Amino acid sequence: xxxxxxxxxxxxxxxxxxxxxxxxxxxxxxxxxxxxxxxxxxxxxxxxxxxxxxxxxxxxxxxxxxxxxxxxxxxxxxxxxxxxxxxxxxxxxxxxxxxxxxxxxxxxxxxxxxxxxxxxxxxxxxxxxxxxxxxxxxxxxxxxxxxxxxxxxxxxxxxxxxxxxxxxxxxxxxxxxxxxxxxxxxxxxxxxxxxxxxxxxxxxxxxxxxxxx
Amino acid sequence: xxxxxxxxxxxxxxxxxxxxxxxxxxxxxxxxxxxxxxxxxxxxxxxxxxxxxxxxxxxxxxxxxxxxxxxxxxxxxxxxxxxxxxxxxxxxxxxxxxxxxxxxxxxxxxxxxxxxxxxxxx
Lengths: 213, 122
What we know:
CATH class of the largest domain in chain A: Alpha Beta
Strand content of chain B: 35-45%
Largest sheet of chain B: 5 strands, antiparallel
Helix content of chain B: under 10%
Oligomer: heterodimer
CATH topology of the largest domain in chain A: Double Stranded RNA Binding Domain
């Protein structure tokens, strides 16, 4: 796992001469802030930090936590669970770079999607809406009926729980899976993955080796 | 900063030596065509009427008349499938985009030869 920042999208040519859409992620170097073990914390995990911030902009607990790893406080800190004995490869204060993906072919990217505000059902859930004409009035983008008294959807009327309706859309955690890893730039700490990843350019994201469906 | 990084990533796909040609030139474009697993080269000859885009998105439009029918092809300048662009005759133009040629037929399509500084390869 590696923490990073989405730089933006561009295109490159592959070896067949096809234009491939790619996203560039500035990933790492991440600092190992803390290593949690089953004895001390009840589970095995490693905590990574990315993106320096001036110590004056964080409170003393954060500064002290970073000091244990002999580093400055970080803007983006995430934890990764480890399966038992694998923890030896992580040591507090060490840095993790894009080279961890050197042998990976596919990665998953976790990000926070762009907020869309209060969105209607057509945008939020892909509903079909109503015809533009043929007598339709004031109902072009409406959700339609949400339940009836006698339907078995609710109990004695009322919409079923989980009924798709209008509401807040976006600005939530989204994972996109199985991005082909097109290029790794160890010098500039860049990952180039095929396709689009969640979030705006400049948004933080987590890159991990693909779990593979 | 952002565009610098993106440009650096793009630059690996950019061609180093792009042949020199200008708007209005008549060019031979050699392009690679893949049919199944066979490869062959096709030459498209015509007038360069536009060049647009930047970086990896830069492309140019070549127009020619085939059987009294105007045919335009847009080539990505940096595509590996565009093997070579060779200017065979220069044309005198006062515009960057020669879309007015689309309305012309017959002899009016021709552009006067320019006595330009760039050399046209044989």
